[in-house]
Amino acid sequence: MSKTRLEELREEKGLSKTAVAQILDVTDSVYSRWENDKDSIPTKRIFQLANFYQVNADYLMNLSDIRINNMVCEENIDLKISADRVREIRKENGYTLRDIANKLNTSSSTWSAYETGKHLILSTFLLEVCKDGNYSLDWVLGRTNQKYKENKKE
User: What are the tens digits of pLDDT across the range 57-76?
Assistant: First the structure.
């Protein structure tokens, strides 16, 4: 069985699952489920893990094979930036609130809450829109101004 990116990055730092779980203030079992792809990682935790490992979130979450090292940004996600970028994705694709909600099997009011910054976008929705449109997860989270991700190594 091949290792997940999260496992590879943790092992590069010489850390145990328990150590990383303690750093993130989550239980060992929660972290282990993330690392083994048994549970989706919450958006806030993707941001924290990318900062902790100092890599791009696109690489961390297997959206790209391009690894950008020494990538660290602010401690917290800027909800306004994230909300603006989520709205930009919807509009750029010509979707109404209803269209994108239907596409993702959620409600228009839920998507609206993401676009207004009332709530941080759910990671499963975020990953889906980034995959579909080749958007950079790091861009949506405000970690970079590069809108589209690079997928292949040159």
Answer: 999 999 999 999 999 887 78
